[in-house]
Each structure stands twice: as C-alpha cells, then as structure tokens.
Design brief:
127 residues, alpha/beta, Rossmann fold, five-stranded parallel β-sheet, two-stranded antiparallel sheet, 5 helices
C-alpha cells in the first residue's frame, strides 16, 4: 500500500454535503490529517458558515437537494475571493478549463475518496 501524501499545510475547512455519512467520514479523515473541520448539510447552514468566514477552504458536494456546489462556490468567492473551493462529486466531473481559469473552483475530488486523495487535493491548492 502506498504511503499517504504528506500534509504540506493544515487548514480550517468548511465541508458541505447533504449525506450525514459522507460528512462524518470527511470530518474524521480531514481531522486525522490535522485540519479543523466545520460541516454543513443544508444550503442555509452552508451560507451561514460562508458568511461567518471561519474557514480557509470550502469543500462542497456538487449535487444537493436544495442547492448545487456551483451555487456555494459562487457565494464563497463573492464574499471571500481568495479562499479555494474544491467540488466533491460522485459524478466523475471533469471541470472545463474555463471553469478552472475563472477561479470559481480550484479543484475537484471524486467520491468515494480516500485519505490520500483528500490530502492530495488539499496539497494541490496550498502550494
């Protein structure tokens, strides 16, 4: 088994997903990597936490019942343009180069994810 990617930085992360099991797993894995994690399950919770600004990285599910990850990415960038956003998806999304160049999102993480994949995603945005 290959070693887990070394943590180059730790962060305060806002992780948004409507699935409680995904939230729990993400929180456990990200905490094990030395990060502080705040979670949200609904658009209202996510927007409240985005407004408060108590995070350095937003990781958000792409598809949720009451909003999309794109909506939350736009809101986060409106209020905190310097904070990276990683879309988390089970759809195998490959963002268009224009979407990445626009700065709306900084990366994509596919579900299900491993500890190593989480760390690599974080390392890629904190270099």
């Amino acid at each position: 088994m290959p070693p887990v990617a070394a943590a180059t930085h730790t962060a305060e992360i806002l992780f948004v997903d409507d699935d409680a099991d995904i939230l729990s797993a993400a929180q456990s894995l990200l905490t094990a990597l030395g990060n502080r994690v705040v979670t949200a399950r609904t658009r209202a919770e996510a927007e409240d936490r985005i407004r408060s600004g108590h995070y350095r990285v937003l990781m958000t599910d792409l598809t949720m019942p009451d909003c999309s990850g794109w909506d939350l990415a736009r809101r986060s960038k409106e209020l905190h343009p310097d904070r990276p956003v990683i879309l988390v998806t089970g759809w195998g999304l490959a963002p268009e180069p224009e979407q990445m160049r626009s700065g709306l999102i900084n990366g994509v993480l596919s579900k299900p994810f491993t500890l190593d994949e989480l760390q690599r995603a974080l390392n890629s945005i904190t270099r």
